[in-house]
Amino acid sequence: MKTLIPSTREGESDLVWLQRVDQVLAGVEAAAKLPGDRELAARALDASNWAREERGKLALVGAERALVLQLLHLPAAPSARIITLESDTVQLHCAMEGERCVGVYLVGRDKAGRVLNAPAQAEETAALLSQALGQSVPLPTPPAREGTRGPTTSTWKVGTVPVVARWRNSDLMELRVGDLKP
Fold first, then answer.
1. How confident is the model over 14-22, as a mean pLDDT?
2. How are strands ordered across the β-sheet holding 171-178?
3. Is pLDDT larger for residue 79 or for residue 167?
């Protein structure tokens, strides 16, 4: 029961904080194996929601390598210049310079599923974009068409972080977050 009580952040580094948040999630998993206790189940649900919210506040862009690896649940890749996370539908690539993530690139995993705002990919793409920025961010809306052709890119900033979306008509084909070159 104690591990399900969210703690307060006490000035520790993002990595130490994430490790404490992940300890709460481990407690949630342990509580799920104990059936029949309604109070425990309610606390576990609250703790799970809190922990996922706290994880979502930690941005990939600008994060140290160890934090990126823990946020993405990846094994250590001490010298990799690109850290990649693959899901069933989306690939996320973190560009590392030294020990920091300078940008994130999102693209569909395979040729048949390249459209990031398609129903099969949209939810996951929005979650990964939000994690890249450390705040809830919706997918961009397609740019307005001018004449017979629409723009192929749209750009904006979230705080100080630049975001570039590449489009094919109204299909979102890729997202670049941070200091990335195509």
1. 92
2. 82-86, 90-97, 100-108, 171-178, 161-168, 153-158
3. 167
Phi/psi for 124 (5° steps) reads -65, -40
The rounded distance, in Å, linking the Cα atoms of 10 and 107 is 37
User: For residue 144, which amino acid is it?
Assistant: A
- The answer for residues whose C-beta is within 8 angstroms of residue 37's C-beta and 6 or more apart is none
Please tell me the predicted confidence (pLDDT) of residue 180: 78
Residue 88: exposure state from Cβ atoms within 10 A (0-12, 13-18, ≥19): exposed
What value does the mean pLDDT of the chain take?
89
Distance from chain centroid for Cα 18: 14
Q: Are 153 and 140 in contact (CB under 8 A)?
A: no
Q: pTM for the complete prediction?
A: 0.88
